[in-house]
């Protein structure tokens, strides 16, 4: 009997409900169906979105097998899988690229219409591949990387170099790439321009890297954590603002104070803190400024100064940094492989899967950027 036909019993990180934390449980992982791949996970990392999912965002679906950043090895494949084989090293990607639909054929969007963003915690056929204590468990997007094994449709996986640093592979599977793409693909930062980045976590540091690569000459990093100054400088900021040092001024005014009162060409909001979205928009130049919304938060609505929009500013959302996985992500993977971006600076903590609950506490530490989870 081939492994493709067998259910695997292994360990996985499960959240049973809002406020209940995460527990390592014995889970059952089904074999892959026709267009699916089962992956033996090697390494994963914690993203802010994982924390939000334990709080019920965007849909309260429990029990949930968490994790969406990671890297693993293909263990078995379905009979219709064509682009991957057993032994390939892969990372999960929650944005697909069919290459043929209206959006994939366009330069205007990376939201594939054939293989959409999965937000219901299930596979494209409406079922789950993971169960725990006899119950169906929901996936996180199209995967569950905090498990020893997981199943994903092949269209939500990307092959990477076998020699890639495992931590780096985790970082580019979501957070860092999202920020990098927000500057490179969404904002389309121009050489000689000015950029403000709100929030210097992994996404914000990715945005700084993307802005630097694009030739921005003034890159302002904004964070209330003073320890993020050094990280920002490692990735390319020219100026740092700690709003706690200027409590009498709004964020947007602090940016204008560094830009002769004009504001920046581009502002990239990476925190998901609702009041910072209008501040990001207000920090850009009248008539041409672009504010990019990247961060995810719990609030559904944000108040925006419509006069600022009428005067020529642009506010644009960005999913996965507007990156098309097959077309754009290899570029970032190559930069990682060539050490052109200092991804080593992102890893600040490492834990085994059995201590997954510690990851949430570590994420609150001032010096924490990314927690690596060894599977």
TrEMBL record:
The keyword NAD is assigned to this record: yes
Assigned keywords, A-Z: Metal-binding, NAD, Oxidoreductase, Zinc
InterPro entries listed in its UniProt record: ADH-like_C, ADH-like_N, ADH_Zn_CS, ER, GroES-like_sf, NAD(P)-bd_dom_sf
Gene Ontology biological process terms in this record: formaldehyde catabolic process
Keyword set includes Zinc: yes
Co-factor(s): Zn(2+)
Domain of life according to the entry: Eukaryota
GO MF, one annotated term: S-(hydroxymethyl)glutathione dehydrogenase [NAD(P)+] activity
Residue ranges annotated for the Enoyl reductase (ER) domain, each copy included: 17-373
A cellular component term, taken from the record's GO annotations: cytosol
Subunit-structure text: Homodimer.
Family the UniProt entry places it in: Belongs to the zinc-containing alcohol dehydrogenase family. Class-IV subfamily.
Protein name, as recorded: Enoyl reductase (ER) domain-containing protein
Organism of this sequence: Acacia crassicarpa (northern wattle)
Taxonomic lineage from the root: Eukaryota, Viridiplantae, Streptophyta, Embryophyta, Tracheophyta
């Amino acid at each position: 009997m081939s492994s493709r036909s067998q259910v695997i019993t292994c360990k996985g990180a499960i959240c049973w409900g809002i406020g209940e934390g995460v527990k390592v449980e014995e889970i059952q992982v089904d074999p892959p169906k026709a267009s699916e791949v089962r992956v033996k996970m090697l390494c994963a990392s914690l993203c802010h979105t994982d924390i939000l999912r334990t709080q019920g965002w965007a849909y309260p679906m429990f029990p949930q097998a968490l994790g969406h950043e990671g890297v693993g090895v293909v263990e078995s494949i379905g009979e219709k899988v064509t682009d991957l084989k057993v032994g390939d090293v892969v990372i999960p990607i929650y944005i697909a690229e069919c290459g043929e639909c209206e959006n994939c054929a366009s330069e205007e969007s990376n939201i594939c219409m054939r293989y959409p963003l999965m937000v219901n915690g299930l596979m494209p056929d409406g079922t789950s591949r993971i169960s725990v204590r006899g119950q169906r468990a929901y996936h996180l997007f199209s995967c569950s990387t905090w498990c020893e094994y997981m199943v994903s449709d092949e269209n939500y996986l990307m092959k990477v170099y076998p020699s890639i640093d495992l931590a780096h592979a985790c970082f580019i599977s979501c957070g860092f790439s999202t920020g990098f793409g927000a500057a490179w693909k969404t904002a389309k930062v121009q050489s000689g321009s000015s950029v403000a980045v709100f929030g210097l976590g992994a996404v914000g540091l990715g945005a700084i890297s993307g802005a630097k690569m694009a030739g921005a000459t003034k890159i302002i990093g904004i964070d209330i954590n003073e320890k993020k100054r050094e990280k920002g400088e490692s990735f390319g900021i020219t100026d740092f603002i700690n709003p706690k040092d200027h409590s009498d001024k709004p964020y947007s005014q602090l940016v204008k104070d560094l830009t002769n009162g004009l504001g920046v060409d581009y502002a990239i909001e990476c925190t998901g803190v609702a009041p910072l979205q209008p501040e990001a928009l207000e920090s850009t130049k009248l008539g041409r400024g672009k504010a990019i919304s990247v961060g995810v938060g719990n609030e559904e609505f944000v108040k925006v100064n419509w006069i600022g929009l009428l005067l020529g500013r642009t506010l644009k959302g960005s999913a996965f940094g507007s990156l098309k996985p097959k077309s754009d992500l290899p570029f970032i993977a190559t930069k990682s492989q060539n050490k052109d971006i200092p991804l080593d600076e992102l890893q600040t903590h490492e834990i085994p899967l059995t201590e997954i609950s510690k990851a949430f506490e570590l994420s609150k530490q001032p010096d924490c950027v990314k927690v690596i989870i060894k599977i």
